[in-house]
Amino acid sequence: MDVNLALSPQAILFDRIDSKPKVLAAVAQLLADAYGLNAHEVLENLEAREALGSTGFGRGVAIPHCRSKDVRRPSLALIRLEAPIDFAAADARPVTLICGLVSPENAGATHLHALAAISRLTRDEAKLQMLADAPHPEAAYALLTHQFERDAA
């Protein structure tokens, strides 16, 4: 399945962020900067989705996601936190890996396929460990682009 997921090297951040609201703001800013979007609009959309229920996926991963009229294909941002934070995940585990996703407004199935691709990646213990061990954002980018290219084949 080819989800045609965009990932820019500028959309990956390793940082210390100490709260869920600050993480959502950082995801919105990364998505905006990397893909030419309005950070305020993306943040509003992420917060509206989060209000429906936590996007804490479990196993230390959160996948905050939303849609935007200004994006042409599903686009990803990745944040790896230096210290875990509470994200109200279903398994109650704190989060250290955030995969932010913004998809086109009318991309129903495409948005779901992108979420599924991210979910598959984050359920893979070996891949999750490689992301946790990546020494810098460029290494995480290389790992992720190889993974998504392989999945699309």
Describe the structure.
With 153 residues, this protein is of the alpha/beta class. It has helices at residues 20-35, 39-52, 108-123, 125-133, 137-152; strands at 6-15, 56-58, 61-62, 65-68, 75-85, 95-104. Strands 1, 2, 3, 4, 5 and 6 form a six-stranded mixed sheet that branches. Helix 1 (20-35) crosses helix 2. The chain starts with 5 loop residues before the first strand and ends with a helix.
Terminal CA distance reads 8 Å
Give the integer mean of the pLDDT values.
92
CATH class: Alpha Beta
Please give the largest β-sheet. Answer: 6 strands, mixed
Radius of gyration: 14 Å
Percent strand: 25-35%
| SS class | alpha/beta
What is the percent of helical residues? Answer: 40-55%
Shape: globular
- CATH topology name: Mannitol-specific EII, Chain A
How many domains comprise the coordinates?
1
Uncertain runs are none
Number of strands: 6
Give the SSE order as H and E letters: EHHEEEEEHHH
Number of helices: 5
CATH H-level superfamily: Mannitol-specific EII, Chain A
